[in-house]
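Key result, reporting period 2: structure in, sequence out.
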């Protein structure tokens, strides 16, 4: 299995609907070779042709790190997004070839943990599935607390219950009790680590409850949905080092526009979380529309930095340090 321009060209071996909104895609090498190794919590970026542009959407790997004969990702259809997930749902068929980047892990397990607690909601379960697989060969105890919007959204959680039994607690709205994050985190032994992935409200509640109970931040881990910028108005900016003018279309991120123009910019998550694409703003006449989780509130107010993977600008003039 070789890389072509930094991407893996894989065949879509299977597509299954697992909830009304989520499809699971199984990807294999066309020549049957094993795929690059990864660890639980890793994600890949799927390149999705979109007219003359390419959308690049990050998705967590949900298959076993011990089985590199295939990767699996779960794609939630986002109606008001830029169209990448809709294209994957509507246009990609079994047997098609798609390009993805090799796996990167921004949400790894902590090896020295004495207890792993997972709190997940909706499609936020996907990185946790590969993390649980990784823990299968470990003797460290874990619990998963997984909330979904109703029984029809519970299939992935029910699959996990069949594998891991009582270690998996499922909270189906309208069927089960509500997930009480504070109770889940209370009275845990020293050395416990909590991992949260799901809607912002769930992650914020996990952070608030854990801190109120005296957990240290080094033992709290979270991954917000690695969703792309939802698009916006077109604008133009300039690369300070070359003077190149870059036009950003309504359904493109600044990062994608830079790549489409043939320039390179560092990135990992493409979701405003990892900090790799942080770029200095050299000149600005207008406003930066910050939508990342990386910059501090002070940085966002100062408008001296931008995260081009998700943030945009409403401006007459913008020059960045690239
Ligand atoms: S690529 Fe991670 S914050 Fe932009």
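The corresponding designed sequence is given below.
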């Amino acid at each position: 299995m070789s890389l072509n321009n930094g991407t893996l060209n894989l065949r879509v071996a299977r597509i299954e609907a697992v909830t009304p909104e989520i499809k699971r895609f199984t990807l294999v090498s066309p020549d049957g070779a094993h795929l690059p190794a990864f660890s639980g919590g890793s994600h890949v970026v799927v390149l999705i042709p979109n007219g003359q542009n390419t959308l690049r959407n990050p998705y967590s790997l949900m298959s076993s790190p011990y089985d590199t004969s295939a990767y699996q990702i779960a794609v939630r259809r986002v109606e008001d997004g830029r169209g990448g997930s809709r294209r994957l749902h509507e246009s990609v068929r079994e047997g098609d070839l798609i390009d993805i980047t090799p796996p990167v892990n921004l949400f790894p397990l902590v090896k020295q943990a004495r207890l792993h607690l997972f709190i997940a909601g909706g499609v936020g379960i996907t990185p946790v599935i590969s993390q649980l697989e990784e823990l299968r060969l470990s003797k460290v105890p874990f619990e998963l607390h997984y909330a979904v919007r109703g029984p029809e959204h519970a299939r992935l959680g029910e699959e996990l219950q069949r594998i891991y039994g009582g270690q998996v607690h499922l909270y189906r709205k309208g069927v089960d009790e509500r997930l009480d994050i504070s109770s889940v985190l209370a009275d845990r032994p020293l050395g416990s680590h909590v991992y949260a992935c799901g809607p912002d409200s769930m992650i914020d509640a996990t952070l608030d409850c854990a801190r109120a109970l005296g957990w240290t931040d080094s033992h709290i881990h979270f991954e917000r949905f690695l969703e792309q910028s939802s698009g916006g108005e077109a604008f133009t900016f300039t690369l300070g080092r070359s003077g190149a003018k870059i036009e950003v279309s309504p359904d493109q991120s600044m990062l994608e526009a830079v790549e489409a123009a043939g320039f390179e910019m560092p990135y990992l998550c493409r979701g405003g979380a990892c900090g790799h694409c942080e770029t200095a703003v050299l000149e600005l006449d207008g406003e930066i529309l910050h939508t990342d989780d990386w910059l501090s509130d002070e940085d966002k107010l100062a408008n001296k930095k931008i995260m081009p993977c998700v943030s945009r600008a409403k401006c007459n003039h913008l020059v960045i340090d690239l």
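The helical segments are 84-91, 125-135, 155-164, 181-185, 200-212, 254-260, 297-302. The mean pLDDT is 94. This case is discussed further under Risks and Mitigation.
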